[in-house]
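Pipeline run #58 for the internal structure catalog. This entry was flagged by the ingest filter as a single-chain record with no existing model, so it goes straight to prediction. Upstream metadata was stripped on purpose; only the residue string is passed forward. Reviewer on rotation: M.T. Logging verbosity set to normal.
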Amino acid sequence: MKIFGYARVSTHEQKLDLQLDALNKYGVDEIFQEKMTGTRKDRPKLEEMIKFLREGDKVVVYKLDRISRSTKHLIELTEQFEKLGVHFVSIQDNIDTSTAMGRFYFTIMAGMAQLERDIISERTTAGLKAARARGKLGGRPKADQAKLDYAYHLYQQKKLTVNEICTKAGVSRTSLYRFIDEQKGVAN
């Protein structure tokens, strides 16, 4: 069994000292350190640590917000740890998934996260249904046909780049390319 520590601060100016001291006092064998915002999905040191994890290992953090970007992300990480047979400890939050109370806490957290996802889904479905009842279809609005015609005219002249055409005509690249493809289909 190996004990891994993970420490993160949001900016390069911030210090990891408090977290490192707590992790060393806990008795971790190896610490993975990162200096990047918690909102970023890609965290190379966290991913590297996860690759080292084996059944029976333990992951220790100073506080929950040091390892996860959101409740959902925290649940995903702990589910991943559980599948690997790895225990998780948050020193400041007094959470240890090797104990009955620690597992209970994460069961409640997982239930809350699922409830939140279900409520969002229900709201979205109800909103779409109400919009359809008022005659709205939903989705992105269609590009203005006159603007597309103008952009296609400029495209056929082959004097401007696609970016210049889009800026001048006020259409997106995606809309322009979709319209070009439609016109090619009509011509065939």
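catalog note: The two ends are 67 Å apart (CA to CA).
catalog note: Residues 145-187 form one domain.
status: ready for reviewer M.T.
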